[in-house]
Known about the structure:
With 126 residues, this protein is mostly helical. It has helices at residues 3-11, 31-35, 38-48, 51-62, 76-98, 115-120. The longest helix is centred in the last third of the chain and has 23 residues, at 76-98.
Amino acid sequence: MPFLDRIKQWFAPAPPPKIRVVTRDILRVTIDQWRSDETLCATAYKALHDPTVRAMIDVMRTSSVLNWTLGGTATVEQVAMHGKFCEGYVMALNDLESLGEQRKKIAVDEPTFSHRNYLEQFEQPS
């Protein structure tokens, strides 16, 4: 193959990638619903402790927007927007990692604010 043909082949446009669209229903489960299910948490725990997935999450943390600098000419609005963007990024990664931790619902006592209950706590025993 002559030299110029090899150069032309090297600079020739690549064929378009073959893309296959996979459609699926969106899983409409909240983080609390996920974490209250023992099986889902066990599966997520196993996946999150896979070395490849762990490395992927580490790369996402290392490549975080927290490491971006805005420069000295950033406006107050740009700084605020960057701060909220960073907060959302960290929250998303933390939420992803929390899917492997099971949380059982805790019953919370309803407070009563009646005047009588309030005064009873200060009464001296006779």
